Amino acid sequence: MTRIINELVTLDVRTVRHNTRYRTCRYLQFRSSVGSQSHSSVFTMLNKCRYTVWPGVLSGAGTTQISPTGFILRRGESTSVSVPTSWSGRLWGRTLCTEDSSGKFSCLTGDCGSSTLECSSSSASPPATLAEFTLNGAGGLDLYDVSLVDGYNLPMMVSPNGGTGGNCTSAFIGGAITILAAMRQLWHLF
Question: List the disulfide bonds (predicted).
């Protein structure tokens, strides 16, 4: 289990606003920090995998498209992306990406179908573990989750850093062992 946790891509989300609630998970590691002076958020993604990951970003309907919408993170690298105060969208990691002789870019998992490094306004093709965010949502709260609705391709964690109110804990989606353990817990509920 320790080996799985050490092989993640990390995202550090810094939201600077009061009355913020967080839920977290791991896939790429996403970290979030909350302060009280500014009204913006910064997502910092850290690749803790032993291989290169190509994150994709898609803004939700009616929210500002952020840039970049796709980039490369080699093992141990990180990058930060600023997002507006009121933003919703998803981030995911693409794996086993290549560019063919004609310049067409594609990925084995999480491909967005844009044929380029940038995803523009395209979402991930399954399988892809998703980190989903709504900033300044209902009641002024920031909400997030890690979703397996489009399948699983990487372990992911979203880690809050700072903030006030709510349940500021980290959640983790790891390898097959973690997923099976979570399913076993759900089966006991029924």
Answer: 97-107, 112-119
